[in-house]
Design goal:
Layout: H1 3-43, E1 45-49, E2 57-59, E3 62-64, H2 66-77, E4 85-89, H3 92-101, E5 106-110, E6 120-122, E7 128-137, E8 155-159, H4 166-173, E9 178-182, H5 185-193, E10 199-203, H6 204-214, E11 220-222, E12 228-237, H7 243-258, H8 261-270
Parallel strand pairs: 1-4, 1-5, 8-9, 8-10
Antiparallel strand pairs: 2-3, 5-12, 6-12, 7-10, 7-11, 7-12
Helix pairs in contact: 2-7
Length: 271
């Protein structure tokens, strides 16, 4: 082997070694960046909601509604930046399962039932109080007076896993009702319009909003009095220790009620 051949081998070895070291440094840097991003994502609070206009819904790609604006203002009052939380929409049954595993931190407009209290810490401050009504097509007559047992012989459409008040729960436990379950309020209303059910039971504000949205106010009838009046709250997944956050948001919402901010938000959507 000549002197120049040996010299060339040494140079090639050095270049290759430096190149590998450089690749390792880049890969380690990329790995660190991915891990940092992952940690940041874990720190973002996931606030889950279902389409529930005019309280929580999406319009033209924008998440909005009375409940959404309430939460944004509450987060602002306790010093949380917009980047510290995000709203995510899923079907109701899936949202409940995700709070059980902790992949959703907070769920909006959830009724504090005994079953849900096993995996959710609920706010003390009420998030909403809603009428629950029966709804039929305009030309349909039903034997409803003021009791859910009046319609036990009819096919009643409901949204799966919705808490529809104590009267509904008692009737379900007694196996009194013939139920047809949908995933969303939109699907529920479609089944009524297509005459796949005799009557549907849902939250009155949602039904009225969707009737106006579809232009079918004159085609659908909301029956009075309501089956029940149901309070809802904010649920916090017990997988995470969020009781301190819950208490702070309660204080913020209470102050919004006292200073008129909540009424201004409601007027924005209801007037």
């Amino acid at each position: 082997m000549t002197k120049w051949t040996l010299y060339l081998i040494i140079v090639v070895f050095i270049v290759a070694t430096v190149g590998c070291m450089k690749d390792n440094v880049i890969n380690e840097k990329e790995q660190i960046e991915v891990e940092v991003t992952s940690e940041e994502e874990k720190d973002v609070l996931k606030v889950g909601f279902v389409e529930y206009p005019p309280y929580e819904y999406i319009e033209n790609g924008k998440i909005k509604g009375i409940g959404i604006d309430m939460m944004r203002e509450a987060f602002k009052r306790i010093g949380y930046s917009d980047e510290s939380y995000e709203f995510v929409k899923y079907p109701w049954a899936r949202l409940l399962e995700m709070t059980k595993t902790g992949s959703i931190h907070i769920i909006l407009d959830a009724s504090p039932t005994d079953e849900r209290k096993e995996f959710l810490d609920f706010s003390e401050e009420a998030f909403g109080i809603y009428d629950i009504n029966l709804v039929t097509l305009k030309n349909v007559e039903i034997p409803y007076q003021n009791n859910i047992s009046d319609v036990q012989d009819l096919t009643i459409g409901v949204v799966r896993n919705y808490a529809l008040g104590i009267n509904y729960r008692t009737a379900v436990e007694s196996d009194m009702l013939n139920l047809d379950k949908a995933s969303t309020s939109d699907e529920l209303l479609n089944r009524l319009i297509d005459e796949r059910v005799d009557v549907i039971m849902d939250y009155k504000p949602v039904v009225l909003f969707k009737m106006r949205e579809r232009g079918i106010v004159d085609s659908v009838k909301v029956w009075e009095p309501p089956i029940d009046i149901n309070p809802t709250g904010i649920g916090y997944s017990k997988v995470h220790d969020l009781t301190d956050l819950r208490d702070k948001i309660d204080v913020a919402i209470r102050s919004m009620k006292d200073d008129g901010t909540l009424k201004s938000i409601e007027d924005k959507y209801l007037k």
